Amino acid sequence: MSAAAHATGIVLHKCMASDCWATKYDRSGSSTATLFYIRTPLSHQGLQHLGIMKIKDGWDMADLHPGGTRKIHPDAYGALIEALTTINWNKLAYQQDLRRRLREHPELFARLDFTTTKRETSTQLVNALLANEHRYRDLAIELMTDISRLDKFPNLAKQVDAEDLLAQARSAVTNLEEWVGRHAAIAEERENFSAELAERRDEVSRRRDFTMVVGDLKQDFLRLHAMKNRQQAGREFETFLHRLFALFDLEPTLSYNLKGEQIDGSIYHDTNHYIVEAKWLAATIEAEQMTNFDGKVRRKGKNALGLLVSVNGFSEGGRDLFKRGTSFITMDGADVFCVLEGRIRLDELISRKLQQASRTGNCYFPAAEMSL
């Protein structure tokens, strides 16, 4: 029988060809405990899975716990999703940033779906890191550390809503920085690897991923619906829509007043720029209001498009007026709720409404009439 030459820590002993066990040594070199006994040969891959690294004539397993390598806390992964999602606003800048950060791991970059939202893509990446933590642990720590040190966000600084976007990014980076700082202590946790891995996957999926954010928005929409102060609900609805549009990477800007001039809100989708107006009135929007919005859109130019949102819908007279020719598409509360329930994605909803308007000239094509 031979033992690996190592003064302290945990050492793997090998006996004959089929028996292995690990013994923990204190700083004096005295044996303190036998950690496990394996009656099977261990391949090099199996040793790596246990976190064993070959040294000279032995196997170093310092700080080994079941599963081997030190674990990254699930909240740190959640913080990484949030930071990746918020440090860039435009999807092209986001994609280029990830390409640069993953240049040493093209197999990871190739697996990412950039046709989805930034949050969904970030979740895909983090789930890949988590599922293969024994392989990508160093990369995960590198990403967390590098992003936590960011203090400039050039893509955000170019946006109309730069102040708000920068505040969100700094908050996300600060949160990630706190987890990076705590990593040394977190790494010493000694829990069962399989149970912890399953728990972490569950935690990440429940945390700030796409589905949970949609759920939060749904609860917020129901809260606004129940508010007695309808004027306040109307004001908060615009902010709600901004969050919903941002979740689907529609690059929204809020409407605001600038030196007495009303600057319209807008979104950007599939190369199209939409002027956005949102209403939460006690009743439906009437033909006059729809005509005013149509005029506003047309004054922007012949290629301008509009999105008119009215939670309580549109009057029959208004719908008839824009049945055979329109510069805008419409969305009502039922449409919004279909998105929040996951029956249709917001970007797909907008695309199908625009296709219908282009074919028929009709501004009104509710989700209820679509094949979902």
**Percent range of helical residues:** 40-55%
Report how far the terminal alpha carbons are from each other: 68 Å
The main sheet comes to:
4 strands, antiparallel
Mean pLDDT: 78
- Spatially, the strands of the biggest sheet line up as 1-2-3-4
Low-confidence stretches: 1-68, 184-194
| Proportion in β-strands | 15-25%
- Briefly note the structural class of the backbone: alpha+beta
Count every beta strand, where a strand is a DSSP E run of 2 or more residues. 12
Q: Return Rg in Å.
A: 28 Å
Count of individual helical segments: 15
> SSE order in H/E notation?
EEEEHEEHHHHHHHHHHEEEEHEHEHH
Shape: elongated
In short:
The chain has 372 residues and is an alpha+beta fold. It contains 15 helices and twelve strands. Strand 5 (53-55) and strand 6 (58-60) form a beta hairpin.
Tags for this model:
372 residues; alpha+beta; elongated
Description of the structure:
The model is unreliable at 1-68 and 184-194 (pLDDT under 50). 50% of the residues lie in helices and 16% in strands. It has a four-stranded antiparallel β-sheet, with no helix packed on it. It has a four-stranded mixed β-sheet with strand order 9-10-11-12. It is built from 15 helices and twelve strands. Helix 2 (74-86) packs across helix 6 (133-148) and helix 5 (118-131) runs antiparallel to helix 9 (193-206). The chain is an alpha+beta fold.
